[in-house]
What does this fold into?
Amino acid sequence: MAGLLSKIDQYLKEDEEADREAVPSPPEDIDAVIGYTPRPLQDWLEQNERRYNYEVMHRRFGKTVMKIRKLMFRAIHCPFERGRFAYMAPTYAQAKDIAWAYLYDYACKVYEHLGVKERDWVDRSELAVYLPTWAGTTSRIRLYGVDSPKQRIRGLYLDGVVFDEFAQIPPSVWSEQVSPMLLDENRRGLDDAGLPNQWADFIFTPFGRNHAYTMFQHAMTWSNGEPVRMVNPDTGFQEEIHDEDQEYFASLLKASETGVLNAKELRKHRRKPGMTQAKYDQEMECSFDAAVEGAIFAQDIEEARAQGRIKRVHWLKFVPVHTAWDLGWDDATAIWFFQVQGDGLRFIDYYEATGAGFEHYASVLADKGYRYGKMYFPHDVENGELGTGKTRRSVLETLGIRVTTVPKHPLPDGLAAVHAILPRSEFDSVRCAEGLDRLALYRRDFDERLQIMKQNPVHDWASHGADAMRTGAMGVSKSLFSGATFEQAAAGVY
Ligand SMILES: Nc1ncnc2c1ncn2[C@@H]1O[C@H](COP(=O)(O)OP(=O)(O)O)[C@@H](O)[C@H]1O
Ligand SMILES: [Mg+2]
It folds into this structure.
């Protein structure tokens, strides 16, 4: 790899003429070289896409193939030096097992066509390939798994990005990390194929009404030329906002309509062992309403939404705000903020961060300005902090956080406690949105070998919010089961 990088550096340092000699021209017709003929709807999408594209498609539509080809096409037409393109999958394993096979295979066809050595243009350990551009430089396409701590995304710049299976990618990867990388004024405008630079595609099959659904709805309204009613950040008022520069495109393609899979194949797929109507509707008919297979709290959240319990709720100034925590170091620490209201709970806020020390959370709590009541922590708060000789509890208490430890309990009890409190809970639709997305995604996986759902829920970026909720629910409901009133329970009187 060092060889490749220095070679590219060398290309860039030399004057333009030498540059063009050193880097071969890309193939005239890259689709012919890689053997790609778009299916009619793949072609339709490519013709209609804009700078930001939200595309909901059924399984086996050809999403991944189509987007890997797009990355290559856009990479060779990049007008800038060192074009940077990224493909992001929910996990490193997914990026490596599925997309890399397509990308590597296509790239090798290009190298063969150009008569260049694959080893000078491929970096397997980074899941990256380089391609020559019409501008006479090189572009890189790299695959990322957003779960991989080794693949740092921060601090890069990007010319284009594809999020594959975006419904299973934390929305903060887009909002906090990637979207700022696409705001480089010097790399805007159109590329050598006349398409907008600094673009992003979000492709997925639905996974309930989570962040991907919200963003898709928003993009669809703009894509249809209609305004979205939202708070204008400039004025602070609700206003109708238009997509002024027509940068958004959205589409939803169901298996019953695309004709990619024939009717007989679809019927057979529907009847497979382990297939349910809900799973079929979700994956093949792109239904956002279908219950997500294995999702543990999605039903409770859907019910809360249907009953209008997810809305703007205001915190009551003179009522204590309790918090429920899940502690992480390498992964996220999650905190729910709630108040007791009659015999229910009102969740007023949610906070999550990764890699921060306890001081950080103490200052977040202080900044929010709530009057705090109980702070419910999982039993591991009693563990020692590495290298300090103190327990986490004692560190937290020196920061003014009065810890209530919720005893270790069997997982099913914790889940049952959450199921018990959710039907009597309200949520602030804005401040709890992230937490609700996490809860909705908390799920069990299907064990293909045993053909049953696995016992333990998936541990991923979505599970910390659910774990914090479980701790809070156990905390408040412990005394409920021992006959205390709900107020006493929430106040931690056992
Ligand atoms: N334009 C195309 N021509 C031929 N085969 C295609 C085309 N697009 C996709 N395929 C094939 O269809 C299958 C599904 O493609 P894939 O991109 O993995 O689907 P998805 O990501 O939507 O589930 C793969 O076997 C792929 O090789
Ligand atoms: Mg795919």
Q: What stands out?
A: The CA atoms of residues 482 and 494 lie 8 Å apart. The first helix runs from residue 2 to 13. The pocket of adenosine-5'-diphosphate (ligand 1) is lined by residues 36-39, 42, 57, 59-66 (CB under 6 Å).
